[in-house]
Amino acid sequence: MLSVANIKSTATTNPYNLPRKVYVVASMEPSQYTRDGVEKEVQHFMVCDHTGYIKLTSFDKSKAEAIKEGTTVIIKNYITKPENIIVTAKAQVFQAPPMTVSQTIVTEARSILRPPTPPPVDIPTIKSSPVKTLQSLAGKIIQVSYIIRFLIPCRA
Fold it and tell me: What is the β-pairing status of strands 38-49 and 31-35?
């Protein structure tokens, strides 16, 4: 069986026939999207083994239902990207006996899919923080108002 470290180093567009046994660390809620007028669903998971962790994306609802957080699964016929395993309708997902994984790998993997909430900071600190950083602001709403935009006709 391939390890997660081997999967990260290779990327394919054809499905792998070799089975891969992984422990499901965390899952996100399914997201809906529309493609060619058809409503579809995608769900992301974080999986790991003794060598590391990798994101798993399922585009098939029946396969996503078989992948449950805290269980070990074997997957076949999956597609690999450098940092992602893709499970489609052609993939196979089987339940497997439990596997032991280092707690540090599990903690790191879980924090990537579900990052911890940052501590609240004040407004001047947020203004000076780098762009695209996760920030939490705590405060009290003192006024709620809205802006009305309208055009005034004028003659030239």
Answer: antiparallel
Q: How far apart are the first and last CA of the chain?
A: 76
pLDDT in tens, 100-127: 999 999 998 888 888 877 788 887 887 8
Which residue from 52, 30, 48, 32 is spatially nearest to 40, judged by alpha carbons?
Answer: 32
- Identify residue 22 by its one-letter amino acid code: V
DSSP 20-39: EEEEEEEE---EEEEETTEE
CB distance 73 to 98 below 8 Å? no
CB 102 within 8 A of CB 44: no
User: Are 44 and 57 in contact, with CB atoms under 8 Å apart?
Assistant: yes
Q: What confidence tens digit (pLDDT) does each residue in 14-69 have?
A: 677 788 899 999 999 999 988 888 888 999 999 998 888 999 999 999 999 999 99
Residues 45, 54 contacting (CB under 8 angstroms): no
Are 46 and 106 in contact, with CB atoms under 8 Å apart?
no
Q: Is the overall model pTM greater than 0.85, yes or no?
A: no
Q: Facing residues of 56 across strands?
A: 45, 85
